[in-house]
Recover the amino acids of this structure.
């Protein structure tokens, strides 16, 4: 399974009619305010191997400005946006067992 991040708008302020995909993100740009590129094309979106990796990337604190000056809370620039973490199954993974059943040498004993 892979994860992509879709942006729906600015949290509580603006909703995009057509959500966009997060294609690039640099949390250290603009003195810790961050910079990113969005794309209408899913194939240009950043891809993550799992949800924790995507979440940690999206909510990372800039190294050059880890805390907000106004209130001292963690600075996480992408938290200003409504994000959706979209799970995508790998082709051919439907119906396949997560792992083979364990083999026992004690069958019938």
């Amino acid at each position: 399974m892979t994860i992509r991040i879709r942006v729906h708008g600015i949290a509580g302020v603006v909703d995009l009619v057509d959500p966009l995909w997060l294609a690039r993100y640099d949390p250290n740009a603009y003195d810790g305010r961050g910079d990113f590129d969005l794309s209408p094309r899913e194939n240009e979106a950043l891809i993550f191997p799992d949800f924790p990796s995507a979440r940690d990337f999206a909510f990372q604190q800039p190294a050059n400005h880890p805390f907000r000056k106004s209130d001292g809370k963690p600075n996480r620039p992408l938290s200003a946006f409504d994000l959706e973490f979209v799970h995508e199954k790998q082709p051919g993974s439907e119906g396949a067992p997560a792992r083979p059943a364990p083999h026992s040498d004690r069958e019938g004993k």
About this structure: The mean pLDDT is 86. The first helix runs from residue 29 to 32. The CA atoms of residues 8 and 18 lie 8 Å apart. Strands lie at 2-10, 14-26, 35-39, 81-88.
